[in-house]
Specification:
By secondary structure, the chain is α+β, with helices and mostly antiparallel strands. It has six helices and 18 strands. The strands form four sheets. Strands 1, 2, 3, 4, 5, 6, 12, 13, 16, 17 and 18 form an eleven-stranded mixed beta sheet that branches. A three-stranded antiparallel beta sheet has the order 8-9-10, with no helix packed on it. Strands 7-11 form a two-stranded antiparallel ribbon. α1 (30-40) packs across α2. It is elongated and about 65 Å long. The two termini are 24 Å apart.
Length: 303
């Protein structure tokens, strides 16, 4: 199967059902809202080594936020057991400390937890309860004024680890394709691409010859050793880049994969699109690349 003369591999992305939170961070202006959001998402690329995956979903204009200030939506992905710890670490250490920041729930869910309420203890008895519109918040006095955080936050189930791999003739074309794909994916509501700049240079496989390693380099996609790997998938390829997507549903992840693949396939020098999987033995969500592509409508819905 081909798209814009780029071969689409007959394979699938192997993803996982996981829990996540969707949080809105606002501040006095766009600059400080983004600073807080970036800090909150630090060291959140992969649950292979990080305690969670986290990323910025998108910007929200001041006209659409509870406190009438600009903000950014972030997502935090981890196990349900670890979610409270991740929330207190990322919000308590990285957003409470950020100038003029406030925090609101951004996920309608049947499962609500009072994590915002528990942030009150930082107020050391000087905290109070307040309302912003109809939203119940805790108001914590800090040196910049009051830090306000919504009392209850939703926890949802979504799909983490949707992916596709761009194989290109050079590093330059792989980089261009990755940047264009990630930029296009930003137009899909409800998804994040948690790796640096939205793209991953070090695609991994499960396990290793070293027993203490949970994951290791995916040698079949490493161009510099293609002549040493019998089943290499990158012979004649200069560089490969993996785009990894977490989203609120399988449909959202599939939509993001489709848009990203089609945009990458427009870049000169891209030779093939593949995906990362583990033989269907690990993830419970399998997304065939063929399901993401309509070769007769390759530009549909691309921003």
């Amino acid at each position: 199967m081909k798209l814009n003369n780029v071969e689409i591999d007959d394979t699938y992305a192997e993803a996982f059902t996981y829990t996540y939170m969707r949080i809105l961070i606002t501040a006095v202006n766009k600059k400080w809202a983004k600073i807080a959001a970036v800090e909150a998402c630090g060291y959140g690329t992969s649950m292979i080594g990080c305690s969670s995956e986290a990323g910025i979903e998108g910007f929200v204009d001041a006209s659409s936020t509870p406190d009438g200030r600009p903000g950014y939506i972030i997502q935090i992905w981890t196990t349900k057991k670890k979610m409270a710890s991740e929330f207190f670490g990322r919000i308590g250490q990285c957003v409470l400390t950020s100038l003029t920041a406030a925090v609101f729930n951004y996920l309608e869910s049947d499962e609500m937890v009072d994590l915002g309420s528990k942030m009150r203890y930082f107020g050391d008895g000087f905290e109070s309860e307040d309302k912003i519109g109809e939203i119940e918040v805790v108001s914590i006095p800090v040196m910049m004024g009051d830090f306000k955080i919504e009392k209850n936050f939703g926890i949802g189930k979504g799909v983490a680890g949707g992916n596709f791999i761009i194989l290109a003739e050079s590093k330059e074309s792989a980089l261009d394709a990755a940047e264009m794909a990630v930029e296009a994916i930003k137009g899909v509501e409800g998804v994040i691409t948690p790796f640096p700049g939205g793209a991953c240079a070090s695609g991994s496989k499960v396990g290793s010859k070293y027993r203490f390693m949970r994951a290791s380099t995916n040698e079949v996609f490493c161009p510099t050793i293609s002549d040493r790997v019998e089943n290499s998938k990158v012979k004649g390829i200069g560089a490969a880049v993996e785009i990894i997507i977490d989203g609120m549903s399988e449909e959202k992840v599939k939509e993001a994969m489709s848009i990203g693949i089609r945009r990458a396939a427009e870049v000169e020098g891209v030779k093939k699109i593949s995906a990362g999987n583990y033989g269907g033995n690990l993830g419970n969500v399998l997304i065939p690349l063929s399901d993401c592509i309509n070769p007769n409508d390759s530009k549909k819905d691309v921003p």
